[in-house]
Amino acid sequence: MLLSISGSLWKHTKPNWIKGNWNCFRSINAFMMREGVESLEQKGAESEIRDQYAEDSSDSDGGVVNEFKAVFKKYKKRRPPPDFSGVIVSDVRTSSILESRLIFPEPSDITTEKEELANRLGLISLSEWRVYSFPTRPGLYLIPGLLKKEQAKIWLKRAFGYANPPNITNLTIRGKDVKTDPSLLTKALRWTTLGVEYDWNTKQYPPNGRPVPEELYQLGNLISNSLKLGDMRPDATILNYYPPKSALSPHVDKSERSNAPLISMSLGQSAVYLSGALTLSEPPIPLWLRNGDFLVMHGEQRLVYHAIPCIGPKIEKQNFETNGVEEDSMIVDYLNCSRINFTIRQVNP
Ligand SMILES: O=C(O)CCC(=O)C(=O)O
Ligand SMILES: [Fe+2]
């Protein structure tokens, strides 16, 4: 009904809540049209974009009720909006589920070399690094706000840069790429694979690949070492680009051949992340992943089901401002509407 209002009348009558999100709305609609998905006009506000893990979780798990899917559906629903008060915030004062500690409690743990590396990567000073852990999820670590806020633009530019050929993206199979058509960056890019490039069809990694960009290698290794999870030699990364209203279905990342941790970095708008168990019959715990947060899955947490049921400014607004440079405004608009997640991985032992 709303969408049938057209032309200048609509420009003047759109309510405040949609004015702020209008660019987000336009870009997702264009994105869906290009993907051959029904547009919002055709399907209404509950429309859905199928993601690359959509096949991985059925409604029943060998006859056992899929408790995970029920929670996923609860947070994915937009009308009426779900109650987000049960989503865990990474703050010990508001949550009894979390424990937290400084990662480098002693000044002697902090070397100039390590501090310089953290700074080059855009991370906050080592003395402020705080990790949250979950008594029911040994091996799951959340490091909130590790990336300095102003670094989001720099990392988003990298995330777009990584989508250039020869790296593979969701557009490659359609013979398209962001180099020949940069408008696809904001309209249709959903994922990029780097290094040993994951194949979504076979659900396998090939034996080898090109090295991952140096900054991703260093980021993965620094975080793994800092949490005392051992040296990590990242050789793969998957980037997921989430337009508003998109989701990532329940899945397990089980194709990597090493036991190294999986390290995820989030940029842009907030997401609800569901951390489950080894089977879908156990309900997941929901937690916020916000701009600059890192989540690490290690040990028994490396093989649990997880998912992103919802993201976007209508769920929790993160504000980014332009510094007036023209190129910046596309980057800032994207951060104000969408979310990007990098998962740094080590495929080969
Ligand atoms: O977007 C996220 O936080 C999760 C991404 C993820 O699970 C994956 O890439 O396998
Ligand atoms: Fe995953």
Automatic annotation (TrEMBL):
It comes from the Eukaryota. Fe cation binds at H251, D253, H306. Transmembrane segments: none annotated. One of its GO terms (molecular function) is broad specificity oxidative DNA demethylase activity. This is Fe2OG dioxygenase domain-containing protein. One of its GO terms (biological process) is oxidative RNA demethylation. It holds the Pfam family 2OG-FeII_Oxy_2. Binds 1 Fe(2+) ion per subunit. Residues 233-348 form the Fe2OG dioxygenase domain. One of its GO terms (cellular component) is nucleus. Its cofactor is Fe(2+). Keywords: Dioxygenase, Iron, Metal-binding, Oxidoreductase.
